[in-house]
Amino acid sequence: EVVDATGLHILPGAIDVHVHFRDPGYPHKEDWASGTAAAAFGGVTTVFDMPNTIPPTGTADILAAKHAIASSKAHVDYGLYGLLGEDTIDAVPALVEGGVIGFKCYMGNTFGKIPSPSTGAMLEAFEVVAKTGKRVSLHAETNSIMERRETRLRAAGRTDPLAHLASRPAVVAIEAVSRAAILAEWTGARIHILHISSADELRPLREAKARGVDITGETGPHYLMLSADDYAKFGGIIRVNPPVREKHNQEPLWAALADGTIDMVATDHAPHTPEEKTRNDIWTVDCGFPGVELQMPLMLTAVSEGRLSISDYVRLSAANPAKVWGLYPRKGTIQPGADADLALVDLGKSWTVDDAKLQSRSKISPWHGRPVKGLPVHTIVRGKFVMRDRVLNADARGWGRSVHAIQEMPPAVVCNADQTMQAVTQAGVSKGQAA
Ligand code: DOR
Ligand code: ZN
Ligand code: ZN
Predict the structure, then answer these.
(1) Alpha-helix residue ranges (DSSP H) falling in 284-355
(2) Which long-range contacts (CB under 8 A, 24 or more apart) does 103-106 make?
(3) Fewer Cβ atoms within 10 Å of its own Cβ: the N or the C terminal residue of the chain?
(4) CA 241 to ligand 1 center in whole angstroms
């Protein structure tokens, strides 16, 4: 197929490693067709889908059913997360066999009421996953802190949007990141910190990196561009976990993207309906909002404002996610004729976000009315136009493939826990023999 690309820039398609496409389970919020259409319109050629669907993606059978749905409807390529919870540790080998891109562990409560594992279960889970070489992505918020604070705020009669932020001070994330990093260090597990929202989390992240822990992190446009100052304007629409924080967090997050502490941008695309986002009592408002379609325009706006360079953007949106999840071509492996995942963008195009025009089934977001500069005009997945001239290619439905098939993680490391266990066992054996 031929296209006139005059005036456009060709970028690698973005890899959004954090989306919730709700399928199976909540088709009124999103499904694989609408979610991947949104991706295609956003210049996103690969998405990693979270496991808090119904049923949660915690067994090989459930994973197989989700693969079947995704492969029949997806317009772009995808990876599926397996759920790493208290009850799914034994399922890890079968989930790896069944084709997960990695695992997701919820340390804090989330949509779909997935219980968070105890620290003991997390340690065991990390030991098991470490042997598979896969990465564990963490929703790093400490449940017990949030629950106590929320109970007190509710008892005090607080139902306003800022009460949500008050229930989740940054210590919630600092504690969880620190604990996850310690468990990763002990077990040799590779981990990824999802949705970094605060400047305070950067310290445990930097320290863990300095100690040699295989730890990576992401933040999203909402933490970079929105702040507590926006709660009055957007009310429950801005409610998301972790919460959008005080403005003073923004500069350190930008700096962390520039210095490599934070490895990538991802959106936590979390669609809900207008009814679900506009309830009067903040505690009953569903958390999250759509994002997969707007990441590229929002970040390219930052590029045009001189916030970051276009090559920084490509590193954060495509190259680093590919490297971290073993999808990056090794030296010398790119051959003529290799498949192309590309976004052709008009960097000079100024426009205004209109929620009503989003491809996502969720037509409500705190981005509504925001002026942006930069628009994906065509999106190509493995050489095929999935979106052309801002029109979805209907033939591309079902073109998306799971990228687990081409994933090559580095070999699993020998973990500390195994060595300790071996030493204990040997000591026990020799003592027994001596007696
Ligand atoms: O705001 C959020 N929305 N945070 C989460 O952890 C889950 C997500 C969702 O699934 O709606
Ligand atoms: Zn999360
Ligand atoms: Zn999420």
Answers:
(1) 295-304, 310-314, 320-324
(2) 103/129, 103/134, 103/135, 103/136, 103/137, 104/50, 104/51, 104/136, 104/137, 104/138, 104/139, 105/136, 105/137, 105/138, 105/139, 106/52, 106/139
(3) C
(4) 6
Other Cβ atoms less than 10 A from the Cβ of 426: the count is 10
Q: Token pair 């919630």 is at which residue?
A: 172
Tens digits of per-residue pLDDT, 337-363?
567 899 999 999 999 999 999 999 999
Residues 6+ apart with CB under 8 A from 102: 48, 79, 81, 82, 134, 135, 136, 137, 192, 325
CB atoms within 5 A of ion ligand 3 belong to: 268
Closest ligand 1 atom, CA of 239?
1
* Beta-bridge partners for 44: 14
Ligand 1 atom nearest the C-alpha of 287 is: 1
How far is 196 from 200, CA to CA, in rounded Å? Answer: 10
Which residues are CB-neighbours of 273 under 8 A, at least 6 positions away?
A: 28, 29, 361, 362, 364
- The CA radius of gyration of the chain, in Å to the nearest whole number, is 21
State in Å: Cα 144 to ligand 3 middle.
19
Q: Which ligand is nearest to the CA of 277?
A: 1
Mean pLDDT of 217-236: 98
Residues with CB under 6 A from ligand 1: 20, 52, 110-111, 139, 240-241, 270, 287-288
Question: Are 346 and 8 within 8 A, CB to CB?
Answer: yes
Residue 205 in tokens = 């992240």
Strands 391-392 and 102-106: unpaired
Pull the structure tokens for residue 30: 């999103």
**CA 87 to CA 56: how far, in whole Å?**
11
For the stretch 90-111, pLDDT in tens is: 999 999 999 999 999 999 989 9
